[in-house]
Amino acid sequence: MASMIRKTTGLVILLLTALATPGLAQTKHLLGYSSLSSNQTPIWVAKEEGFYKRFGIDVELVLIEGGTRGAQALISGDLPMIGMAGQAVISARARGAVGAPSVKTPEDLKGKRIGISQVGSSSYHAVILASKLWKLDVRRDRITILQVGTQAARVASLNSGGTDAIIINPGLSGAMKQRGYNILADFSEMPIPYPQQVMATRDRFLKTDPDLAERLIKAFVAANTFTLDPKNKNRVKATLAKYLRLGNIDAAEEQYQSGLAILAKKPYVDVASITSMIEFLTESDPSVAKVKTEQVINNAIMKKLDESGFIEHPFGK
């Protein structure tokens, strides 16, 4: 579980949570997600398959694109819990870098423009981390980072020539390749320990209503297990097609496969990824050095569910 602090995956899901003010099960709770990508699959599946209701929670999902905006909503109290990339909690490995036809390798990025959502977002940190791995220097190599906005806006910018490369969410690489663009990198395959996806909240919510927190986590874990079960493939793809606004279920195959690639059977927080993220953020913001990994992670509920056998058999044996 990842708890909010002043600042805020990897191939594992970082779990999370708690919700708003304590109340009866009939109270509707807002749950957020920060991107239209397969990273959010368990959140969507939990809603569509009725797992939140199964555990006595009436949930309304809301999209707040960009981890930075999501974190701000969480801190302000406007949103009690949200699924987003980890950099906003303390930002994106299972994402990809796509280049125009003239940009075939990372070396070709020199002197070019890269489109991201906004500074401080997971797409921004993906560029910075990948540049280091590729031995590129944004200033030295005259790489311009443009704040373009949502993924749709970034794709439109690449199409119009407003950018030379963009960061995209999981599941879009195949479609971009078919359009003639080059896939420069799949960050899920790069040796970068990084928090891919977290469900984030504040300590206050965990302490105020631990029962609600546990029920929310149960719904999330049940959806995660459901998604990983091959016999549920078509139902999961139907959910992906709905939330990603795809033409049909078959069009969700790539998103389905990219989701399976990052979902862990036991979605504990990856300590190494959080530690790496803190170290990285400290380079640009020294105040982050005060943050300790143990302040950000809380696996207590996950451990309880694991020891009880719930993770493997959320619907009973």
SSE topology sketch:
Blueprint: E1 2-4, E2 13-14, E3 28-33, H1 41-48, H2 51-54, E4 58-63, H3 67-76, E5 82-84, E6 96-99, E7 113-116, H4 122-133, E8 144-147, H5 151-160, E9 165-168, H6 173-178, E10 182-186, E11 197-202, H7 203-208, H8 210-228, H9 233-243, H10 253-262, H11 271-284, H12 293-296, H13 300-308
Parallel strand pairs: 1-11, 2-11, 3-4, 3-5, 7-8, 7-9
Antiparallel strand pairs: 5-11, 6-9, 6-10
Can you offer a commentary on this structure?
This protein is of the alpha/beta class and 317 residues long. It folds into two domains: 2-90 and 194-308, D-Maltodextrin-Binding Protein, domain 2 (3-Layer(aba) Sandwich); 96-189, D-Maltodextrin-Binding Protein, domain 2. It is 39% helix and 15% strand. Strands 1, 2, 3, 4, 5 and 11 form a six-stranded mixed beta sheet that branches. The radius of gyration is 19 Å and the shape is globular. Mean pLDDT is 79; it is low at 1-25 and 88-94.
In one word, what is the shape? globular
Indicate the radius of gyration in whole angstroms.
19 Å
Biggest sheet features: 6 strands, mixed
Give me the strand/helix succession.
EEEHHEHEEEHEHEHEEHHHHHHH
Examine the secondary-structure arrangement and name the CATH architecture of the largest domain. Answer: 3-Layer(aba) Sandwich
Treating each run of at least 4 consecutive H or I residues as one helix, how many helices? 13
Q: Give the class from helix and strand content and strand pairing.
A: alpha/beta
